[in-house]
What we know:
The complex is a heterodimer of chains A (about 325) and B (about 375).
Chain A: H1 3-17, E1 21-25, H2 41-45, E2 50-52, H3 57-69, E3 73-77, H4 88-95, H5 98-101, E4 110-116, H6 131-135, E5 140-143, H7 148-160, E6 164-170, E7 194-197, E8 202-206, H8 210-223, E9 228-232, E10 235-237, H9 241-251, E11 254-261, H10 266-278, E12 287-291, H11 302-305, H12 309-321
Parallel strand pairs in A: 1-2, 1-3, 3-4, 4-6, 5-6, 8-9, 8-11, 11-12
Antiparallel strand pairs in A: 5-10, 7-9
Helix pairs in contact in A: 1-7, 3-4, 8-12, 9-10
Chain B: H1 2-5, H2 34-59, H3 73-82, E1 88-90, H4 96-102, H5 106-114, H6 137-151, E2 158-163, H7 170-182, E3 186-192, E4 195-196, E5 199-200, H8 211-216, E6 220-225, H9 229-244, E7 250-255, H10 274-279, H11 285-295, H12 301-323, H13 331-334, H14 343-365
Helix pairs in contact in B: 2-3, 2-11, 2-12, 3-4, 3-9, 5-12, 6-7
Amino acid sequence: MNMVNAINDALDIKLAEDKSVIVYGEDVGVEGGVFRVTEGLQQKYGADRVFDSPLAESGIVGTAIGMSVAGLRPVVEMQFCGFIYPAFNQIISHASRMRNRSRGQHETPMVIRMPYGGGINALEHHSESMEAIFGHIPGLKVVVPSTPHDAKGMLIAAIESNDTILYMEPKRIYRAIKQEVAEGKFTIPLGKANVLTQGTDVTVVAYGAMVREVQKAIVMAKEAGISVELIDLRSIYPIDKETIVKSVKKTGRIITVTEGPRTYGVGSEISQIALEEAFLHLEAPPARVSAFDVIVPLPRGEHHYMQDQYKIFHQIEKTVKY
Amino acid sequence: MIFSEYNPIDKKTFQVMDDDGKIINKPWMPQIEDDKLVKAYKDMLFARTADLQIVSYQRQGRIYTYPPNYGQEAIAGAAGAVIRDEDWMVPAFREMGTMLAKGVTLKELFLYFMGYEDGSKFSVAKNTLPISVPIASQLIHAAGIGYSIKYKKEDKVVYAFVGDGGTSEGDFHEAVNFAGVWKVPVIFIVQNNQYGISTPTKMQTASETLAIKGVAYGVKSLRVDGNDYFAMYKAIEESVKVCKEGEGPVLIEAVTYRKGAHTTSDDPTKYRTKDEEDSWDCKDPLKRLKAYLIDKKLWSDEEEQKIIPQFKEEVDRQFRDAENYGAYPKEDVFKYLYAEIPDDLKEQEREYDNFLKWKETKIKTN
Lengths: 322, 366
């Protein structure tokens, strides 16, 4: 099962067991979404539960806020992360604040799904990685799966959560990774990172499509005699400090790998955690492998921008030799 | 059908009563029992009394910034008379009459404007969203609530408010469009009080009216004299009927005049003349309904003089109650963001606890 199938499976399970779950967005109904993530669901559950909305991101998120306040559990799709900006006001001024400003009287249990990230030769505005922006907003949870198994378990957990969850889908690996995914319902707790590879020399923290690039770099590192511990962060917020700190204390070194721009990014936050919580264990400064602080180049220039095994291994070598 | 008879395309404005309280449109006069009508007037009078008193509290430095309702009471008052407990209220911030009708207490409104989120946790009012400051953004929630009502086949209607300035926001258009496509039971009430802070309506739009915007979205729309209680009541009553028949949403442009400032921080003398303000006095919504009631011998100046001090006392009682609300608990800063407080946020709270302890000993030793 690939990630597209896994997400579809999670939606299918929740639609089947909970009548309050509603799935909508641009082209998600008849067509099943531009990436076919919602394929077949309208046929199965009807056009009042899975449907195409007008083409308006603020309207999609804002109506989901209204539905969730009134007792539904909407799962809405932003067609691409780069198209979410018209919905900023609804996300930041309302979804993230409703419980707080009504002192618990109203909640907005909703999931905003969106494909994000580069590497698929897409049009302008189709390759952004904006997780850091949302991680900065109090009241939101932001999660990113890196495997089909995690995608399914995390989405089910997100739909069952009473918080507003931004569920970011690394579209580059939508179909690139296949694995056995358990049938039926299971959840993966949101906010918990996953140590994918144990190691002793350096900790690498990544998420989404970058996890696979780090795994390739680990093969190179192994040949060079370097033992890497890989943490799949899974959740941008809440951030699993405990797992990160425990690992850094063991390895003494930390590198973050993120797809988005560097400044004020997720890597900066993790580096600061390492400094605050494991300063005396550090044998090298925390390092950030990230995009430059530039706009995502169009496909012909994207290879300059994206992080790959070479850029990651290069930093691993530098950090270990520091 | 009121919406075809007063189609905004024909540039009509729906009126039932003239400036002197005379009924000029008998066929559309709503049937309201005498005691209900007197209560409606008293509710509007109470709202006005409270409103004027809040402005004076603000001048005394006892409450922060406040947006007065003065002059617009018939709109929120009529909606308040029709709305039911199970209906949804999606306010902007100038609808005191409807909020009170839903069961929001003055004390709660005071708490909000005094700086407590607790004022937006309504102890009695059900299905009522908090005041919404980001202009027009709340209208989209109304469309979503409308979808939920339709999906669950509930007998409920959503009342959603916005001002004239809000019709320039994209969210206004997205909300009316979504609700129109989905055919959901939402009554959008645009309080056209002639100004968005200082900007006159003619600088918000080249459209001849605001009601016409609803027509473009395939939504039944109506331009109403918002200072005419009977016209507003009838318009809302008819809108509810349309919504219940599954023919919603509806858009009502209620033409009114904001007699007060935008908020207590605003100075209207900078952008409008005394002559203009005075020219709206003859259309005052309370004055007109009062004239009707006096003519029908349902109300008198004596009764009014007797009741106003009682209202003032009640307003003051609730205000003092709010003033004595007490300290803002530190825990409340942290505990409502998420269903469960994330570890990281718990840690920040502990850090703050430690700081507070340190500060306390520091202050003691000094």
